[in-house]
Amino acid sequence: MKTNILYIFLALSSLLMFNSCASDAMDIITEKTSAKSVYYSYNSDELKTIELINDHRESVGLNRLERISFLSVTADDHTGYMIENAVASHDGFAERCDEVIKTVAALKVGENVAFNYNKPTKAFNAWLESARHKVNIEGNFTHIGVAIKKCETTGKKYYTTIFAKI
pTM to 2 decimals? Predict the structure, then answer.
């Protein structure tokens, strides 16, 4: 009798444990699905920046990066922050990194920012001349998101590029 109760208890415990895991997995799948269904409308400067980065990566034997709108939306939020605070910075990068990791299951995240370059080629060239920024451009990443906005007051452009390995 005690053996039967023990088996029933173990069976119920296993059932509850599998239900719990299935629920967690469903939450992750839902987050990934919603992240991939986010829409971002790329402007010509953003598309040019992605093209410059991918062309450079290809020229040094690296894979091209795939655009993910979620990364661009995240970059856009940070670009807005930089404009609002009139600063080029990586403020809040740890939080952005955690959100990217959580939402798209990224293994690694990097970020480049720039300020006051009228053309994407100038921002890109400045990144290549900076060892820290070049590491991201040539890093072990698979995906990219870019946001470039012009400050209405000053007319200066702010750039945020987020790299992720998924």
Answer: 0.78
